[in-house]
Predict the 3D structure of the following.
Amino acid sequence: MTLLDDVKLLTTANASKVGILYSIKPDNGNGDINITRSTTATRVNPSGLIETVAINEPQIDYTDGCGCLWVEAISTNINLYSEELDNAAWGKSDVTVTANDITSPDGTTNADKCETLSAPAQMYQAISVATNTTYTWSFYVKRGTMTDLGAKVINLDGDPDYVPATSYYSQTSASGWTRVSFTFTTGTNGGNTYFYPINASGVTGTVYLWGFQLEQHTIRMSMESSYIPTTSAAVTRNMSVFDKTGLTSTIGSTEGVLFCEMALFWNGTGTPSSRQKMMGWKNVDGRAILGTWGGSWFCWLAGAGGNAIFSLTPAITETSFVKMAVKYKAGDQAYWKDGVEIATGTDASAVSATQDRIVGSYDGISDFWAFYGKIKTIQVYDTALTDAQLLALTS
């Protein structure tokens, strides 16, 4: 028997429709994952273009080269006229803008050419920011004839510069679009702040810009989220939630394995703590959780009365996908990550309650210790795998 023969639930980010991410196993629809999100969102499609997905439609994103389910927190873009640099909301000094000059990352001709006419040329937008708050500012760049390009973010109400004058030229390409981002935390003043995507760095020439986004983080994000276009007002993309109940015949109540290949790009600070719960329970007896907690990878396996068998938290060092598995059986438990057995247990109770669900938040409660990140695959087994199988699964 192979792992594919043994697996009871196999979900990958390939096929979907509005409200549903299809599972490969079982193939009768009983394991399909429910997706809810009360606003539209964007994703990078298989052709590499940014496109809008409908309300409740899964964000199957190809930024990383293969399809991943992108589960995002609520976020608001407060950078106005994100694609219209010729608008008066953008201040300009010795910069001319040619609107809709080339094809943008969304595949349409709506990206602007900016030409600097003198060495100190600058372009900026004034935005009010909150105090002691983390933001990420991002935008798309394609090289023109400029040989250097700088950015800066300065506060006019007394805080030090949030992003000191810096060159991002080395990150950009003339053959394609590059998303540049800056994450920073405001000080005790906040308030009136100027965001400069062009700080000419002593050179003149052309550059192409598109898709500006300034997000205030309510979770422990350290990177930009999916693109949220704006015009005259800020725009909010609501959070995504995934869940599936009614899995009592799929998830083993006395033994089994939960596996997930996922990516989380959090910086490990702030509240609420982000953790992923992949397998749920009907009462306090029996919990299996994979994800993060307080900046560390997190595996929690609980037995009778909810008592933790192990709750281990190796620090997050990755900025890419990891493979995590937890095995549970009376007297035989283990936690594996990327081909390494991290911990073992011999608790007699293990998971002792009927398991009935896969959810992306604490017991299915919306946005409570919710999972936010990218998922390549979810697998559930109703029997405990061998060490050789767990090694193969997580390598």
